[in-house]
Amino acid sequence: MGFHQGLVGEAYDRQYSNSALLRRIWTYARPYSTKLWLMLITIILQGVIGALPPVLVARVVDTGQVNTTANRLLIILVLAVLVIEVLGYVFYYVLHRLLARVTADISRNLATDAFSASIQQDMAFHDRYSSGKIVSRITTDNLDFVLLIQLTVDVLGSVIQSLTVGVILLRTEWRLALALFAFVPVTMLIVSVYRNLARRVTREGMRAMANVNANIKETISGISVAKNFRQEDSIYQDFKTTNETSYRVNYRRGFVLSIVFPTIRTIGGISIALMTYYGALTVTQGLISAGAWYMILLSSDRFLMPVMSITSYWTQVQTGFSAAERIFALIDAKRTVVQTGNYVPTRLEGKIDFNHLQFHYATGGEVLRDFDLHIRPGENVAIVGHTGAGKSSIARLITRFYEFQGGELTIDDRDIRSYDLTALRTHMGIVTQVPFLFEGTVEENIRFSVPGISREEILDLSRRIGKGEWLETFSHGLDTNVGERGSQISMGQRQLVALMRVLAHKPSIFILDEATASIDPFTEKQIQQALNLILEQSTSVLIAHRLSTVTSADRIIVLAGGEIIEEGTHAQLLASGGNYAELYNTYFRHQSLDYVEKAGRLYSSRHALNPE
Amino acid sequence: MIETVKSAAHEDSEIALFKANIQAYRDTSVQQGDIEARFLPMLLLALAMGFGLMHALLLVRQGAIGMGSVLTYFSSLSLLGFPTNTSIRSYSQISLGLAGARRLLSVMNMENNLDKNDEGHAGKLRGEVEFSHVSFAYTSETATLKDINLVVYPGQTVAVVGQTGSGKTTLARLINRTYDPDQGSVRIDGVDLRDWSLDSLRSQISIIEQDIFLFSKTIAENIAFGKPGATQEEILVAARKAQAENFINALPEGFETVIGERGVTLSGGQRQRLALARAFLTDPRILILDDSTSAIDSQTEDEIQKAIMLAAEGRTTFIITHRLSQIRWADLIVVMKEGLISSIGTHEELMDTSESYRNIFTEVQ
């Protein structure tokens, strides 16, 4: 298996051949094939009977003219018109109920598949493709595809009606029918010219509207600043200018859009006028009956309207198909992280070894080249370095979010690829910069990884951190609801809950990507305590941003350009005055109490700070 | 986000959650489809066509009208088809429009419950701030601030410390009368805020919010936002005092660089210094700084520290902060906890009296 190829070789968007695309669409449609057949039958029936009323009325006219006493036939014809009209409604009703179900089901299945595929994709995928674009595939493209189904049903009905009308017309009076057919290309031309025009003004209108929205968004977000400096008037003037531009553009758009139906009706009107004139001529010459003439007049509308909808249908087909293509590409995108085995460990020692490891992200240069790192069971390693040194990559490889291209990564002397991924991750406690909390209570969130733990045990653990003071800051203690993704509690509290979870879980390996967000000093202190407790129980890999975290590690790895350039304890490294000392001065110095005391002294003599 | 889901091996439950949501969406769209399918005007039209034709023919039989009238009549009936079809969409659009109009009106009719009190006390502010027995609640359920008593002398620097939700920001918002207290009173220079002219009061108080907002304009325009006529020289001095001059000059077009969505993105520390420059230019008597940005590196921290020290000079300054260094040099430290002032005093006093305060100034062993 070529991992290298796996990472860079697959472009995620692909071209499906039309037949492949149709087959693929069919796999989603097949479960509903009974409904689809029913729909097709309904569509055909609806199209055919839709063409009938003019024919029947024409008969009525002819019958009425020839013989006013032919009551029975008249009654039958009239009843037939009534029945057909009511049947038309019934078919419409049945068809739309079926359509609603089929489209909703297909759309749901597509969205579910696309969502599952994207959530199961590895991180390399999510780095490359923004979540916004993935979301739009799952939602907007899906809607476009559903719209295609709905339009297809409409257009199919129209085509059948058009064909039926066409055949009836030809059989009734072919000369008039051909005259009517001559309007088809004219109608198509006008509709497509008009559509281009409409598209242009709509795009301009939307752009102008987007400017207004952007202006409002900026103004509302900046309202407190504006009020603070009493500049409400000036931002209102800004808004007015943008809004007036939008008004002008959209006025024009409204005008263009509102002339569409008049234009199209005019074509219909002209065709009817011509048909009326020549039809009347043929009637007076006795070529066709008055009824047939009337029928052709009534039918011309039923014939031309479908032609218009077919013309606008083709662009929709393209939109719908490319939407389907995009969704399928998302579903089919290849994963790069591939496991070769499914070993399920009962417990892990926590030994981690990188041997001659090579790694690069899908885009960009080599991050780790011939990288060696050996972490003993139970050891706490802090990784420090400038941005881009490769710190996060190391953590991401251990958590197996990314595939590496060469060398070896073993956990407890077993290739990391030979583990069952879910089983492996359950032996890891991973705390990311934004900790994962789900809607539920604090207690449920802590219990998440260890379902068996009792409330008492959780309370015991809680008391080990700042005498349990942190729990008092929650309105309902352990029973406080953290809200969706933890939104109801503060960032610091979220970190505490996430660390409590690891503390309860006692994983073999603890991976921390420390948050850089600033947290009040009281909570910060408790986070440090929780962290120190975890370090006692697990092998830890810490991507540290806090000075206190770095100093509490057994070993500090200084990383630069994907290589280890120094290692040792905080005291050793600082004393040697090398790269670590430089990093310390860049990132950690201001967190030391020394610095804090100096700031205090500086203030007492702050007149010395005057820049003049 | 996806990384955290994966870390927690939580993919399956996320998929389950999505499935539940999408099923709910599916059910409502089927419901909508059913309602649209039932569209009764279509049935009425069908009946009208059938019975209309029947009635017309009855009239013909009685000799009341001729066949020509029947044709005219039936053609006219057929014309109803188009409006009936389009009205399917119109109904939902009309109700959407009405709902939209209702929301618009509710915004337009909202009343402002702070009176501007134009005739109130106006004058140069010295900067003495006093809270006496102040309580305040955003909602009737829980009070955000409870019985706050606090005296700050002109020119003092006050550090407000506490956990998220302890009431720090609310405390600050009462000072420039963003809100009025429910009980007790806030006085500046001995005058109750409600007796001040709002304009005079706010023009001498500047707030730098936690999320610093900059407009999508040039840096110079952003700095001069509070003083539209400011000269180049004034802007430059303000930027210099805010320790922002160096990074501004390093930008592609210096002070004329456009920032925001259509321009350069600035870091939290840089935004903060621009906001400080903005405040230097308007020279308020009271400065309120909600400082929650974390400095990534020590040099930025040094610069921000220096800028804030300069800004605090010669005016009453409230700093809502997480930084130990700022707490360390403030004249007065207010520790908030669940809406109450849990301890107050100078650094030395708090080191003596408060155990939790002492804790944060000790290394963990």
Give the helix/strand layout.
The complex is a heterodimer of chains A (612) and B (365).
Chain A: H1 3-8, H2 18-29, H3 33-66, H4 71-120, H5 123-128, H6 131-172, H7 174-181, H8 183-221, H9 223-228, H10 232-258, H11 260-284, H12 290-332, E1 352-360, E2 366-375, E3 380-384, H13 391-398, E4 406-411, E5 414-415, H14 421-426, E6 428-431, H15 442-447, H16 455-463, H17 469-472, H18 491-505, E7 509-513, H19 521-537, E8 539-543, H20 547-552, E9 555-560, E10 563-568, H21 570-576, H22 579-588, H23 593-604
Parallel strand pairs in A: 3-8, 3-9, 6-7, 7-8
Antiparallel strand pairs in A: 1-2, 1-4, 4-5, 9-10
Helix pairs in contact in A: 3-4, 3-6, 3-12, 4-6, 4-12, 6-7, 6-12, 8-10, 8-11, 8-12, 11-12, 18-19, 21-22
Chain B: H1 2-7, H2 11-37, H3 40-61, H4 67-78, H5 81-108, E1 129-136, E2 145-152, E3 157-162, H6 168-175, E4 183-188, E5 191-192, H7 198-203, E6 205-208, H8 219-223, H9 232-241, H10 245-250, H11 268-282, E7 286-291, H12 298-312, E8 316-321, H13 324-329, E9 332-337, E10 340-345, H14 347-353, H15 355-360
Parallel strand pairs in B: 3-8, 3-9, 6-7, 7-8
Antiparallel strand pairs in B: 1-2, 1-4, 4-5, 9-10
Helix pairs in contact in B: 3-4, 9-11, 11-12
Strand content of chain A: 5-15%
Could you list the spans of chain B in which at least 5 consecutive residues all have pLDDT below 50? Answer: none
CATH class of the largest domain in chain A: Alpha Beta
Mean pLDDT of chain B: 86
Placed side by side, the strands forming the largest sheet of chain A appear as 6-7-8-3-9-10
Q: Using the CA coordinates, give the radius of gyration of chain A.
A: 37 Å
The helical percent of chain A reads 55-70%
